[in-house]
User: Fold this.
Amino acid sequence: MKYLLDTCAMLWALQDTARLSATARKSLKNSQNTIAVSVVSYWEISLKRGLGKLTLDGAEPEDFPRFVAEAGWSTLPLSPETAASSGRLPLLPDHRDPFDRLLVWSALRENLTLVSRDGIMRAYAPYGLKVCW
Assistant:
């Protein structure tokens, strides 16, 4: 299977695995699975850290691309086509977070299962989104 980690799942997988569900941990440990992290997550981490809304345990935002590579995961770029078409993702009530929306849209376009604890993500299932938690 191919997975895309949302930002929280990526942070927890790298810094606090106990916060992941047993299903998510098992999926990440399975060497048959492909794991990706979007550049959108790096942007979100950097922005939220800069705004004082995120603390990182002994790390800087610039460290995460290296952490992801060391974990054996890939980085999913944000293609111009994905960025330009992201407005096609239906706008759900109470879900306007641009980072989440780009992650959902990227997962849909790339046929990836999104690893996320965020319950609102499951609301995109009718549009084809698969969620693992």
